[in-house]
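Hi everyone, sorry if this is the wrong subforum. Our group has a chain we'd like a structural model of before ordering constructs, and none of us has done structure prediction before. Sequence below.
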Amino acid sequence: MDSKEEKKERRQGYFARLKRKKTGKQNAELTSAAASNKDDPLKVILGQTPEKASDEEKKKKRGQGKQLRRNEIKRHSAGELQNNKNEKKEKKMLTTQPLGTVEYTATSKDTLNTIALAFNVTPNKLVEMNKLFSHMILPGQVLYVPCGDPPPSNVKESSCGVIASTGSSDAEYDKLPDADLARTASKPIERVLSSTSEEEEASEVKFLKMNCRYITDGKIINVKEANRRKSTGSYEDEEEEAAIEEFLPDLKEKSLLLEDMHIKKLARRLPARVQGYPWHLMYSLQVHGASLKTLYRNLGSLDSPVLLVVKDMDNQVFGAYATHPFRVGDHYYGTGETFLFTFSPDFKAFKWSGDNSYFINGDTASLALGGGGSGFGLWLDSDLYHGRSNSCGTFKNDILSKKEDFVVQDIEVWTFK
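Answer:
Right subforum, don't worry. Here is the predicted structure as tokens:
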């Protein structure tokens, strides 16, 4: 038997032979690769075979093609986006002047509220008319405003509408009760129609129907002219004066708070769009109970202005005209036609000052009209028992009652339809 030392020597020779064979094989492969790829020394160094190199070249070409397609798609989409942006800019730049408006240049003292007050329009209407993004305006900014007569010095004059004679075939005008008499009058009636929309045309016809109330000597005169003649005593006969004196709104229910003197004075202050309509009692504390929720519920189906009348324990009568029916909301609502009034001691009406737009705010706990300054112009609690009146920035009003805090005796809410 071989000794252990001999076996160890033979084992080392075996492994040495295997190592030499492996090294020789690797050298032969490198030599053959170098012979076939003499023009690419990098492949010889890395030991890459031609098959591997061709696969990588194919992958590289496919990747380059995909990248080219991606770049073309990006360039195409970027060009479309740029074209869309340019079109939007052009549309923004091409603003047309609304019909029935004139250009007004804002001064350093102007705000949107003061301009709206000057032209008898709401701030929201100005925003819509001029396509503004906010209520902020800058000095020198040109705005479109409704036609005024006479226009201020910084208003650029332009055509504001068209004149239509009584010979128009307007179906709604033909339905007016005084249409035949107006056509046969010695002086034809002219009605100015705004050409902005059909709705505005209808509102002008409605205004004519409501405001042209009196007919004297074949001529229709409006409420304002009738009041002027009454104040100057320039009536042509006693019958005309009697016709004016008899003018009172048609109250469908009897009021427990308003006397004829109250009604006459309030009717003269109401906007033209509600003059001539009958008055309907929608809520009475004596009839429906003392609950603000009931008041909201009774006005829930309305879409017309309302008149709030309050009488306190000192027998003072006061209230507010609101352009929108009272409802629960999370913000103020209403327009600049809203006003406060009082008969304590003489009749006074407090119109919108233009300082803010805090007209009406209602929730389940209270009802408030006017705000800013020291408090609300008129405030009522949920039980319609306690109330408060302060001077506010919205209307620049006096205290409506004798005292700031008052106790309610009775309340009525009227609407016009």
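For your construct planning: Residues 50-93 form the longest helix (44 residues). The CA atoms of residues 106 and 140 lie 5 Å apart.
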